[in-house]
Every structure is written in C-alpha cells, then in structure tokens.
Amino acid sequence: MSNPTSDEPVVAAMPAPLPAPTVNPEVIAEEAQTPPELPKVGATYIWFMVLAQFGVFMAFITPIAISLAIRVQALAPGHAEYLGYITGAGALFVMLSAPFMGVWSDRTRTRIGRRRPFMIGGMVVGVISLVWMAVAPSVVLLGVGWVLAQWGWGTVLSNLQISTADRLPESQRGKVGGLTGFATQIAPVFGVVIAQFFTANALLLFLVPGAVGVVLVTLFVTLVHEDDSRGLPKDHLTVGRLLRKYVYNPAQFPDFSWNWLGRFLFYFGLTLNTTFTAFFFAERMGVTVDKVAGVIAALGGIGVLATTAGALGGGFLSDRLRRRRVFLVLGGAVMAAGMTTMALSASLPFLIAGSLVVSLGIGLFAAVDQALLLDVLPEKDTDAGRFMGITGFATSIPQAVAPLAASAILLIGVGGGQKNYTLLFLVAAALVLLGGLVILRIRSVR
Questions:
Q1: Euclidean distance between CA atoms 19 and 17, whole angstroms
Q2: Residue with more model confidence, 393 or 140
Q3: Which end of the chain is more exposed for a tag (fewer CB within 10 A), N or C?
Q4: Residue 306 in contact with residue 376, Cβ under 8 Å?
Q5: Alpha-carbon separation of residue 214 from 121, 210, 421 (angstroms)
Q6: Please, what are the domains in the chain?
Q7: How many angstroms separate the CA atoms of 332 and 398, rounded?
Q8: Structure confidence by residue, pLDDT tens digits, 375-396
C-alpha cells in the first residue's frame, strides 16, 4: 500500500447518517393540545377550601333542610306545597344568573384576584338574605329572601369551585372532591342539629348557621393567596357575546356534555328526595313538622359515617385507581336503593336504614362527580367560570323545576289532603340511577 503524498488530497470517511426519528403527527397534536399538569396545592389550600364549602352549605342548605319548612308552616299552615314554589323560584333565578356571574368572574381584574371579590360580595348578600327570611311577614317575601340567599351563597360556592378548577392538578381532584363532598354533605346535618335549639326564634334559626358560614368563608378569603389578576389579558364583552356565553356546542365537548346530563338527572332526583324530607318524616311518624327537627338531626348525625365512607372512600380510591365512572354508577345505584327503601317504609327502623344508604350514595356520587367535572371541564385557563356556570344549570334547573314537579307528583292518586310520598321517592330513585348510568358514555376518563 502506498503512502499518500503531500499533493494528494486526504479524504475523511463520512459517518453513517443517524436514523430519522419516527414522527407521529397525531401524537404531536395530542401533546400540543394537552395542557401542562398544574403543580400540587398544599394542605393550607385544601383544608381551608373544605372548611369554606362546609360553611357555605351550613349557611344556606340548613334553610332547605328545616328552617324554610318551619317558616312556611308558621306563615301558611297546611300549605306544604309553598315550600316547593319558594325553592323553585330561587333556583330559577340562579339558573339564569350563574353563567353571567361566571363570565364576570373570569374577566375580573383586581389586586386580590378574580374569585375572591365574588366570594366577599356573595357572602354579604347571603347574610342579608338570612335576616330577610327570618323577619319576612309573608310567604312571598320569604321567597324573595330565598332568591337572595341562592344568589349570594351560590356565588360564593361557585367561585370556590372555580378556584379548584384554577388550581387543582388531576392527581388531587378525587382527594379534594372527596373531602369537600364529605364536608358539604355533613354541613346540613350540623345545621339541623343547631337549628333544633332555635325553632322558637326565627332570627337565630337562620343566623346561627349563617354565622358559621361567614367565619369559615372569611378564613379562606383572608388566608388563601390568589394571584393579582390585573396583568391578565382583558376581554371586553358585548351584550351579544355575553348571551352567547350561555350556550356551547355539545358536540365540541361531548364528555363535558355527558357529565352535565348525568349530574342533571342525579340532582333532579336528589332534589325530589330532599325538598319534602321534613314533611315526609312528619307524615310517616304521625307528628307535626316542627317535631321532626330532632329526629332528622339524629338521623343525619348517624348518616355522617355513611357519607364519610362514600365521599372519602370514593374520592381517594378514584385518584389511586385513576377511575371515576365506576364510582358514579355505584353511587347512583346505592342512592336509588336507599330511596326505594324509604319510599316503601312504614316504620322508623326502615326509614333510618334507607336514609343511611342514601347518605352513602350521595357522598360517593358527589365527591367523584366533582373530580370528573374538573377532568372534562373545557377551556380551564380562559373560561373556567363560564363552563362552571353552565355546569351550574345541571343543579339549578333541577332545583327550580323539581320542587314544582314534586308538588304535582305528591297529588297523583291521592285525595283528601293526602300526599303521595311513595311515588315521589320512587321517581327520585329512578332518576339518580339513570344519572349514574349516563356517565358510562364518557370516553376520555376511565
């Protein structure tokens, strides 16, 4: 072999080309559309969120559980159906105003953030409403007070829930949903326990549970940080654009739509079941409605264990197993079984057994459904408040329509002043069961 001379060019061997990476455009598109995982929130946020939602439910669900029934009986004896008209009117107002409040919250620019101003304002309106209901001299004015209560405390609650959409990563949604679901289910129980000591004093009947709500919401507002929102992009709405925010294309977000329908059916059945609970127990026990507060309170206290098992067990397991749908189907089925038992009960032991099963189902469904909602909520970064407001239709429409429907169902097949509570509870059972089954149509979440 001859050596190259200085006049011959030196040719270096070229390295073999690297293999071209395999590109899957669908994977790239999917990754581009998937938002980054939010950082985990700390214990301070979680526990003050749980306490705040407990306080809200103590303040404005206690009236549904017992206080409004007592006031209706005092102002219009023998007209239990008026309770349905009052609660329906309040829910109808919230149904119409909730998306607007959510859009307004999304676009609020203040030093203390987007959500906290609405929590503060809603709490003020809520306290005024409680005083109003306590001193209302007529059923009509009592209804006006309930509309204010639904608007005020509902605004606080919706912004607390929007905050979870802003802050919670997927890995914590079931856990927080379980804790808040547990808190919101036991809050009315504590409210009824407190209320039974003030049945003779209308002002304290409403204000003592309300004071708990004020304290706990204030703790969240003052101790949980929310970023300054003044630097966020501004979006000025016209009336036309605002009205269009009330609707969306279900085909564009099918999983959100199925979740909405399942929630609607479940809460329609739940509202049928709970609106006339005090009157139902009074009828089955053969006593007047003001005598059942202690019984409902004791029953609710026992039900705390069932609600805890459903909410915490379902919430934590759904995070760990990364499955939501099976727990919602199970929650609807369990609650339907409990409602059926109550409907067919003629004695206190069976009423208690049915109520405990209902508590288990409510805790399970409510906790996991809240986590599922956050999983499928569209446009979290820009329009979380809007879609949470639209989600609110799934509960506010039942709250508006179900009491009216219940008043009609109670009159079917009976006469002489009797009420058909058996049929009412069976219809409620069918609806909550169907609400759980609808969730199976969701595809993006297991």
A1: 6
A2: 140
A3: N
A4: no
A5: 12, 6, 35
A6: 41-227+246-441 (1.20.1250.20)
A7: 16
A8: 998 887 778 888 888 887 888 7
